[in-house]
Design a protein that fits this description.
Number of helices: 2
Largest sheet: 2 strands, antiparallel
Order of helices and strands: EEHH
Distance between the termini: 62 Å
Strand content: 5-15%
Helix content: 55-70%
Shape: elongated
Number of strands: 2
Structural class: alpha+beta
Amino acid sequence: MSEPKTISVNIYGQDYMLKSTGDESYIVRIAQIVQERMKEVEATGLDANSQQLKIAVLAAMNIADELLQAEDKKNKLISKIETKGNSFIEYIDERINEIESVKKEES
């Protein structure tokens, strides 16, 4: 594992020095997403000067909501793939049994 490096990001006017082994461009992109979500919340009418904590919490809740929706979508897709895969396996097993039955009858 590589050594953690210090990465500086600015989110909502605050500088943060982060230690990470992750790719710097990835960390910067994360900071950009947080910044974007905070600006979206601020655009709903909250005062950026007096309600920074509220803006941050609401932005975090929006990000968490997106995460949970993505996980739900992924889980539904996995379930669908598993169901179709099992159906395919059952179909193949049935065909194999039919072929084996025909071979036995021919013998």
